[in-house]
Specification:
Rossmann fold, 35% strand, single chain, 5-stranded mixed β-sheet, 6-stranded mixed β-sheet, alpha/beta, 8 helices, Coagulation Factor XIII, Chain A, domain 1
Length: 396
Amino acid sequence: MEPRVVFDKVWKKFRRGERHDSLRDLVPSLVRRMVRGTPQGLQAEEFWAVEDVSFTVPAGQALGIIGPNGAGKSTSLKLLTKILRPTTGACRVQGRVGALIEVAAGFHPDLTGRENVFLQGAIMGMSRAEVLERFDDIVDFAGVGAFIDTQIKRYSSGMNARLGFSIAAHLRPDVLIIDEVLSVGDMAFQQRCVERMFEFKRQGVAIVFVSHNLQAVADLCDQVLVLRRQRLFLGDPVQGISTYVRSLEGATDSQGPVHITAALVDANGGPVEIVKPGDRLTLKATIDARSAVHDFVIAFRIVRSTDQLLVYDAHFPASDFGVSNLSDGGGLTVDFDFRANLTRGQYQLETHLFDVESQRHLAWLRPAGLFAVEEHRTWGGVADVAASASVTRIER
């Protein structure tokens, strides 16, 4: 079966501060645009926003696109929705497209919410009768019934996002293209969005989903594209998120006075990717001194990758291990044993060596290890408290 979404060897460039204030500036620019050859070479002030990126999404599957700000994520979605044209390469989307690229994108600020619903339906090729049939569901899902006849420019960013997603989600798309809808709105709305996208997958809708919410990406997506203008990774979501997190942080300074390496293993000494709440893990760190070190502290930290929330931070003075110093060329191995009493999510480990006398870091390794906790009970929070529930029926 032919994929619903095709992104084939796409390049897209922009020019910094491009303005045409005179005919003298405009004519050379038009000539350059007419010569659409290979992607080699950039003119002055030009840069590549997307470089040779390819992916496909079949019906009933979801692709998550993750990466830092400026990586080309939103540009890729605008290319898919034909808001932008690629410099070279091809973008194809088969079927009706529901899209929410930016909060309030496509809304006319002077029209009411009601009028914008019908406008968006017309843009998607739907008749007034088709939009009217789904109108009440759109408004109920968005939760803006009291303001549906208010001009969009009076809406908050959360109201805009809720209405935009609701329109995209209720007009029966074949392809759903969503950018950062989970960054706006309360938790209940975010959960409804994720549940609706799962429902779409079951109905055979192809989804392209850009988000910084790594947990939502891990839960929803069948494959993940890690983007930094170029494709860093395309494949399994857990491996993709690990690749992304590792790309954000550098290892300990190899030229510093201390060098740290580490490996995360399970209770059997095997490598770790996905664990259950409460599983016992060990971070095995090796510390090599390039010069003498005295009176130091070893730190162990757990950080939630989704939002960089510090979950745990512990410090172990060297004296606790009966070690007063490290000589030049000496070293230590340190085993940090812990239980992953955590709710579902992506987590990273960090460790560093701190010199007490100079009050400075001698080395810092992040991420020292990466793992995902898999469970399906909780929606929010960090700590797994092994909660359970029991019910007693009351007869009246």
